Amino acid sequence: MSRLPCFVRLPFLFASLFFLIINFSIASAADKSWQTGEGSDPANDGRPVAWLDYGVPETDDIQVRIACKAQDAGAPELDAVFGAPLGDLKNGAETVLIFTGDGFEHEVPGKVHGVGAEVGIAGVKLEAGIDDALWDALTQKDSLEYRISGQGAASLPLKDGHRRIGNFVEACRSFVKEEPV
Fold this sequence. Notes:
Blueprint: H1 6-30, E1 33-41, E2 47-55, E3 62-69, E4 77-83, E5 94-101, E6 104-113, E7 123-126, H2 133-140, E8 143-148, E9 154-157, H3 162-174
Antiparallel strand pairs: 1-2, 2-3, 3-4, 4-7, 5-6, 5-8, 6-7, 8-9
Helix pairs in contact: 2-3
């Protein structure tokens, strides 16, 4: 049995690796879905909490992670992080995330979050209340793109997640409590 010389085998090896990398990238993007849930938060005196993720279930491949925590009074606390290209921005830097698509254009202020972290999302932690126009857009638009000015855009498919996103928004809005008089 004759062996092929190294210079003949290497292109086949590189082509095989390239094929595997491309297929893995396509599969992981296709595996992303919207996940939601509700429960009680022991770190918040057992108050209700709702969460919404967009990513590959049961992995660290998460693009969007949002938690809505009920408070004693007033609006719930929202902790919303959208993974985004950050360029040279540093943790804590104030920025604006620009959402566009299907006739919707909206800017939401936030702070850079998770740069260099081994766990979690590197992106923008939004400073948006539950009445922000973004939440209705997430439940009504088929897809949106978002970006920091001067950086690349990230796509966010929404159509298949409308029911789950809507359930999250409804739960979070139900956490609003009247201020005591």
